Prior knowledge:
Layout: E1 11-15, E2 30-35, H1 45-52, E3 59-64, H2 80-92, E4 96-100, E5 114-115, E6 121-122, H3 141-153, E7 175-184, H4 185-188, E8 195-197, E9 218-225, E10 229-233, E11 237-238, E12 240-245, E13 248-254, E14 260-264, E15 270-277, E16 298-299, E17 303-305, E18 308-309, E19 313-318, H5 322-329, E20 346-354, E21 361-364, E22 370-375, E23 378-384, E24 391-394, E25 402-410, E26 417-421
Parallel strand pairs: 1-2, 2-3, 3-4
Antiparallel strand pairs: 5-6, 7-20, 7-26, 8-19, 9-15, 9-19, 10-14, 10-17, 11-16, 12-13, 12-15, 17-18, 20-25, 21-24, 21-26, 22-23, 22-25
Helix pairs in contact: 2-3
Amino acid sequence: MRKHGVVELxxxxxxxxxxxxxxxxxxxxxxxxxxxxIEPNKEHFSVYMQKxxxxxxxxxxxxxxxxxxxxxTEHHKLNVDEFGETLTSILKxxxxxxxxxxxxxxxxxxxxxxxxxxxxKHTITSYDYDAPLSEHGExxxxxxxxxxxxxQHLPEQVPxxxxxxxxxxxxxxYGSVKIDQFIHLDSMLQSLQPIASKDVVPMEMLDINNxxxxxxxxxxxxxxxxxxxxxxxxxxVHDRAVILLGGVPLAIMDKTTEDKVIPIKVLKPTNxxxxxxxxxxxxxxxxxxxxxxxxxxxxxxxxxxxxKTLQDWQIYPLEFKKPFIExxxxxxxxxxxxxxxxxxxxxxxxxxxxxxxxxxxxxDMEGWTKGVVFVNSFNLGRxxxxxxxxxxxxxxxxxxxxxxxxxxxxxxxxxxxxxxVDIPKLE
Length: 427
């Protein structure tokens, strides 16, 4: 970087643990630290810096104010008093501090990511993080604790009177939205051009997007079967798959199921569909590993029937980009016959009517199973009944006065309504 003219301050940022203390540091570069708490029986990071790097000021580059959540786990929270104790220790030492996160926000669309390469844990849509500012920008107890402690530890030459916190706009509970129309997967696929492929391939290897492949969303593999037998999905799927025969779900696979065997009966030519969801890629890992450049999503291995490899597939890249959503919305295949026993994969829609200026709200997905929500063709993100997240944050700027179209792609069992509430449910 210096060779190519970069003159700004460079720094490294690593966890303050024995095994990582010097792992990422570079001679002549400011060393900074990441942590959530300071262990009482360990040398204080500022003392460590004074002893080993006296030419550099102490700096906490990532003071973790909370933590992110994965599907199927508890919502992480950091007690405000414990948070305050650590921040006090940082400020008393004369160190500078950067909060990660001060405001977490939302993993809109398919941008949630994952951790733990060997057995990925996929991050939820909300990135609230239990941060000083909530997902929707409300000031929390941590925010006011920061104000309190900064006022106590400001240098004498700095005025101790801080400006008043800004007023908040609040959220609106718009009530129930009836989901009264649906369209089946086969009808959705009419808005896509399938890709003929001799073998199954991961989404990144599809010749689409200017030869860049598919990056996000779902991918569906279709093969017409003329006879039954013992179907095997070899290896692992990446990351979660629903196997359907003639549109009827037969099995679910995820990264805990390997070499799945499914006995199937076929009395007439019938479509075998394997719908695979890319649930997010690992977004940081050991710098010495090549993993970040090798993650592939979809089917990476063969599919066999009675030990014979199935070939000649039709592959559908379900990226759920705006043109695709709008094309499906214009289809004549939407039904509104009052049925409540429909099964996914299926797309459904309803209308949220707003009379005045739109405000932030939250979509309570209670009753739904797993899928993705779109509002006025914007991808809000994923929901999953296993939690911990129960609501999706819907910012007011995505809404408009009048009719707002709510569209849901439900993989399993849908519900007949959803409720717009003014308080998030993250645990």
